[in-house]
Amino acid sequence: MTFLEPLTLTGRHVILEPLAHDHHDGLVEAARDGELWKLWYTSVPGPEEMTEEIDRRLAAQEQGAMLPFTTRLIDPATGAAGRIIGMTTYCNIDAATPRVEIGYTWNAASVHGTGTNPDSKLLLLSHAFDTVGCAAVEFRTHWINHQSREAIARLGAKQDGVLRSHRRTNDGVLRDTVVFSILEHEWPMVRNGLEHRLAKHP
After folding, report:
1. What pTM, to 2 d.p., does this model score?
2. Into how many domains does the chain fold?
3. Which H, E and C letters describe the chain, residue by residue?
4. pLDDT digits over 136-166, tens only?
5. Domain range for residue 58?
6. For the domain that residue 116 is a member of, what is the CATH number?
């Protein structure tokens, strides 16, 4: 199995399913939950930008550069896929090593702190390490985005360094990018930590 094969991953709280154009309206509603696009240090698409963002991610998938997912809540009553709460991806895919980045992730504000993010990360990391056999999984975020940096560190990822003036944000400002990674031999400890966190959100 490779990162270029679309698949659905099911966890305790969320289902990650291949991004599709018919997810548009649900993604718009999720983005409106907290108006996350107004946070200047994030790259969450606004409602009028969602079609373009879906097209961009699907085009990157066609080029073999990304595998995008839509994140849905699991309905606790039925166990079926419920409302859409956000997006995530595998990106910077290096199939030869293999190595991958988990990025371009955002979730509706109302689900922050409910276990959805660690559940999503457990699904993506498990697939990367246990199924694909990655040597490392990477995370990147804006230097200014302290919430994201803290969330990545809580996963058990270690900071590799800072890429200064790495790329331009949507408003044209050069950003410094913080790079974190989890190595293959670190994965069992990280997995235990994620499972312990999820046990607090039955």
Report:
1. 0.93
2. 1
3. CCCCCCCCEECCCEEEEECCHHHHHHHHHHHHCCCHHHCCCCCCCCHHHHHHHHHHHHHHHHCCCEEEEEEEEECCCCCCEEEEEEEEEEEEEECCCCEEEEEEEEECHHHCCCCHHHHHHHHHHHHHHHHHCCCEEEEEEECCCHHHHHHHHHHCCEEEEEEEEEEECCCCCEEEEEEEEEEHHHHHHHHHHHHHHHCCCC
4. 999 999 998 888 899 899 999 999 999 999 9
5. 9-198
6. 3.40.630.30
